[in-house]
Amino acid sequence: MSENLQLCVSFTFTWHTLGPNPCKKCMALNGRTWTDQTIWQPQLIDEVYGAIWDFTVDMSLAHGGLGRNCHCFLEITVEVDPTKLESYREFQTTMEELTSAK
């Protein structure tokens, strides 16, 4: 993905903990959100727990191989602001010029 396109995309990551016997780490992460990271990095990093999600294989790193009954998932919300794209701004300027010329 081009750097220009990456500038117009923002992500919100929200941790959801499910299961009858989730681990303490997943319970602590439940409902937490991160907005300062992207899917273009290899892992989602929590300021307390470190690497908690691996984007390259799309799986949790939070519980390791502890055999817990966690069923956690990471909700990813993607927002696109096309006004940050140079081509969009050029298009918008052209349209404004055309409509004001009438």
What do these coordinates show?
The mean pLDDT is 82. With 102 residues, the protein is α+β, with helices and mostly antiparallel strands. It has helices at 3-7, 24-29, 86-100, and strands at residues 9-16, 33-34, 43-46, 50-54, 59-60, 73-80. The protein starts with a helix and ends with a helix.
Topology:
Layout: H1 3-7, E1 9-16, H2 24-29, E2 33-34, E3 43-46, E4 50-54, E5 59-60, E6 73-80, H3 86-100
Antiparallel strand pairs: 1-2, 1-6, 3-4, 4-5
Please sum up the structure shown:
With 102 residues, the protein is of the alpha+beta class.
Major sheet: order of its strands?
A: 2-1-6
| SSE order, one letter for each helix or strand | HEHEEEEEH
Mean pLDDT across all amino acids: 82
Helix content range of the residues, please? 25-40%
Number of DSSP helices?
3
Largest sheet properties: 3 strands, antiparallel
Oligomer: single chain
Low-confidence stretches: none
Number of separate strands: 6
β-strand amount? 25-35%
Number of domains: 1
Query: Which descriptor suits the 3D outline?
Result: elongated
Structural class category = alpha+beta
Query: What is the CA–CA distance across the termini?
Result: 38 Å
Radius of gyration: 20 Å
